[in-house]
Amino acid sequence: MLIGAHVSTQGGILTAFDRAQAIGAEAVQIHATAPQSWRQLELSPETVAEFRDRMAATGLDAFFLHAVYLINLATAREDLLEKSEGSLRHYLELANLLGARGVIFHPGSHKGLGFDQVLEQLGAAMGRALLAAPGESLLLIENSAGAGDNVGSSFNQIRRMMEAVDSDRVRLCLDTAHAFTAGYDLASAEGLAAMVEELEREIGTSRLAAIHANDSKAPLGSNRDRHENIGDGFIGAEGFRRLLAEPRLTGAPLLLEVPGLEGKGPDRANVERLRELAGLPPLPG
Q1: Could you report the per-residue pLDDT of 259-271, keeping only the tens digit for each?
Q2: Which of 51, 159, 216, 280 is deepest in the core (most CB within 10 A)?
Q3: Contact 284/26 with Cβ under 8 angstroms?
Q4: What distance in Å separates the CA atoms of residue 137 and residue 66, rounded to the nearest whole number?
Q5: What is the rounded distance in angstroms from the CA atom of residue 65 to the CA atom of residue 32?
Q6: With the CA atoms of 241, 247, 252 and 255 taken in that order, what torsion angle do they form, in degrees rounded to the nearest 10?
């Protein structure tokens, strides 16, 4: 079991390794570019080589890129669809270049059109991005909290998106806070069991490539995307203890996206909380 976190890249993507090591992270997620911008990142061959060297030296090879929040593959706007597909393709190219495991992204919102009406478009856009960026990097669909017309709040919808693109590079990133507010009761033993059974039936836990480990500030079924520090939210410490003991989930790296005890983002304290709940030894030092 690898326990890691989303870390800042202020000062350049190479700084992610130092920040991850400072909090005891064993897996890493970054925004390669500003999450609210379409700007693309140009990397020199020297930076790419140093990135790969740092990955090898630190052992932090469970490395993921999180695509920008502006992406919407379910939109009816042709200009936005084109920008979204281009950005996703760029992130997949970056992941291949850097040797990252994959790109995690939010598929978007149908804005009232209905999921069935945008399903073919979703599959086609993902397929084109994957074909344009051939390689080993995965494309991870992140489940949504179900607010508004966002797609992907259920495993059924995500399975149908995966079938629409039909690529073995497409996987799932399970966000625990999103799942909880979408109606999956991770705070109870029965709810966790039901969620895992549905995940196995609809998608298969073998296609789970990462977990965003987040407690929730919002209650069950509220469809609100509000992350909380581990043990301080509605899922709670016992909910995470059970989740971390579920053998069908333990193969996927865990990535914290919590506010942190000082409000500065994922921190060593939250890494330690997850390690303790998982029955792992404390971090050295």
Answers
A1: 999 999 999 999 9
A2: 216
A3: no
A4: 13
A5: 6
A6: 0
Q: Strand locations in the chain, DSSP E?
A: 3-6, 28-30, 63-66, 102-105, 138-142, 170-175, 208-213, 215-216, 227-228, 254-256
Yes or no: say if 26 and 65 are a contact pair by the CB < 8 Å rule: no
CA distance 240 to 238: 5
Domain segments of the chain as ranges: 3-278
Candidates 121, 140, 218, 126; CA nearest to 177 is 218
User: From CA 131, how far away is CA 18, in angstroms rounded?
Assistant: 33
Q: Enter the tokens of residue 226.
A: 């509000």
Run of H or E residues at 216? strand 215-216
pLDDT digits (tens, 9 = 90+) for 124-150: 999 999 999 999 999 999 999 999 899
| Residues with Cβ within 8 Å of residue 197, at least 6 apart in sequence | none
Q: Are 142 and 105 in contact (CB under 8 A)?
A: yes
**What region does 192 belong to: left with phi over 0, alpha with psi -120 to 50, or beta?**
alpha
Determine contact, residues 97/37, Cβ cutoff 8 Å: no
Fold of 3-278: TIM Barrel (3.20.20)
